[in-house]
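Human:
If only I could read backbone structure tokens as easily as an amino acid sequence. I am handing you a single protein, as its sequence and its fold in token form. I hope you can help me see how the letters and the tokens relate. Thank you; the sequence and its tokens follow:
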Amino acid sequence: MKKYVKDLTVAEVEYPHDLYVLLKLTDSEPLPETFPGQFVEIKVEGSPQTFLRRPISINYVDREKNQLWLLIKKVGEGTHKLAELKAGCKLNLVFPLGNGFSPVQKQGERVLLVGGGVGVAPLLDYGKYLKENGAAPCFLLGARSKSDLLEMEQFCALAPVFVTTEDGSEGEKGFVTQHTLLNHEKFDRISVCGPKPMMVSVAKYAKATSTPCEVSLENMMACGLGACLCCVEKTVKGNVCVCKEGPVFDINDLTWNL
């Protein structure tokens, strides 16, 4: 898939949570083709301490409005600087990068999409893709509390949504792997993105139930092209760059102790 270096315009800015900003970017031309699970590398202007680009998952692509959404968690100086952007600002991106989630395998297949924290971001676009291509997605989303759940309106508009919160303020109390959905439903495959301990737990469940599973790794990806070697991950095939070979991997290709 062809890669682009483009200046996109911030069309809208939303603040779904104190720790997050949602940037909706547009262009004078139709946005390039992307696939769910891919990411962008952002140049952060006006941040002397931010030398390298910041990798951000593609949250959603709205072809009707010609918008590309980025859901960004404010962590360091770079992401805090991005959160200060206003409508009309320009943002330089390298995209689309990496290999995304698997395409639809068969009509009507049941795909469970599991996300936690900002890891829910790429699942929104993937859920839309699955629905539009004849699959039956289902979301299982985890958060610390009700206030930490993100983009619930958009998720609910696409498919059934099940929730766990650590404090029990929404959905079932506990972690995603403790949700009763997993005891009563069978899925054709599972796709996961979120904190590594959560992904490992879901991968163990998938392994135990013989359910195909893929995870989207969140290694630091400074260049997005496999040149800087910041994001190397050990796999059964040797060390690979997550930005180039991933970020999505079949759990059977990873060396996790499952």
Q: What stands out?
A: The helical segments are 77-82, 121-132, 152-158, 181-184, 196-208, 242-245. The chain is about 20% helix and 35% strand. The longest strand covers residues 4-17.
